[in-house]
Amino acid sequence: QVQLVESGGGLVQPGGSLRLSCAASGFTLDHYAIGWFRQAPGKEREGVSCISSSTGRRYYADSVKGRITIDKDNAKNTVYLQMNSLKPEDTGVYYCAAHPVLIDPYYYCSDYKSLGVLYWGQGTQVTVSS
């Protein structure tokens, strides 16, 4: 079965950390643009961080730069999002996405609607609250 499965979300206090995982099955993430997208209540889904599996280049939205790291484990066919110093405004449902396109991750995070998403994960809730 071809799918992306996220895990690792939860409730955390401001300043805390979480590591999200996105495991791909049924296909390999080679030559894909992969991204983590966040949707807060009442807001549009936005790109948080993206990575090109071909080049390893990474992109981070300004709102998370310096606090979040995206990494890909080829052996496990999994992409991770390490989130530190979490803030209440980081709250939302986090989705991972993958599309077979060779493109700079900045453009994929910024314009995924036009570029397309072949696979979406089911989403994992992150709540940052005291």
SSE order and pairing:
Elements: E1 3-7, E2 10-12, E3 18-25, E4 33-39, E5 46-52, E6 58-60, E7 68-73, E8 78-83, E9 92-99, H1 105-110, H2 112-115, E10 119-120, E11 124-128
Parallel strand pairs: 2-11
Antiparallel strand pairs: 1-3, 3-8, 4-5, 4-9, 5-6, 7-8, 9-10, 9-11
Give structural attributes.
single chain, 130 residues, mainly beta, seven-stranded mixed beta sheet, 8% helix, 46% strand
Total count of helical runs of at least 4 residues: 2
The ordered string of helix (H) and strand (E) elements is EEEEEEEEEHHEE
The proportion of strand residues reads: over 45%
Uncertain spans, ≥5 residues at pLDDT below 50?
none
Distance between the termini: 39 Å
Total number of strands? 11
Give structural notes:
The protein is mainly beta and 130 residues long. It has helices spanning 105-110, 112-115; strands at 3-7, 10-12, 18-25, 33-39, 46-52, 58-60, 68-73, 78-83, 92-99, 119-120, 124-128. Strand 7 and strand 8 (78-83) form a beta hairpin. It is globular, with a radius of gyration of 13 Å. The chain starts with a strand and ends with a strand.
Brief description of this entry?
This protein has helices at 105-110, 112-115; strands at 3-7, 10-12, 18-25, 33-39, 46-52, 58-60, 68-73, 78-83, 92-99, 119-120, 124-128.
